[in-house]
Design a protein that fits this description.
Elements: E1 3-7, E2 10-12, E3 18-25, E4 33-39, E5 46-51, E6 58-60, E7 68-75, E8 78-85, E9 94-101, E10 118-119, E11 123-127
Parallel strand pairs: 2-11
Antiparallel strand pairs: 1-3, 3-8, 4-5, 4-9, 5-6, 7-8, 9-10, 9-11
Length: 129
Amino acid sequence: QLQFVESGGGLVQPGGSLRLSCAASGFTLDYYAIGWFRQAPGKEREGVSCISSSGGSTNYADSVKGRFTISRDNAKNTVTVYLQMNSLKPEDTAVYHCAANTRRSACTYWGLQHEYEYWGQGTQVTVSS
């Protein structure tokens, strides 16, 4: 059974940086697109970014373009997906989840939650002074 291990969240001041990591166990992610979503208190979950299976194609929400960078390390037996977050703003505060789309290698329809079959438990990111 696929399980995600997410890490890297925490408390950071506005303008600061964090790097989130998402690793899978019990399953190989080599062939699948991986997305990052976030959910702020009282708001709906929204797509943040997506990376294709090869890492050659990425997508970003307009609100994070130029500040966030998604990447993946397709090492043998272990795939880790990263979300580097720079110039963080208070409105970036949310629980961040990674998710796997096991039906696609590309980020087609990447912002649609129902495209993703497996979800991580989430990691809290708080941006506050």
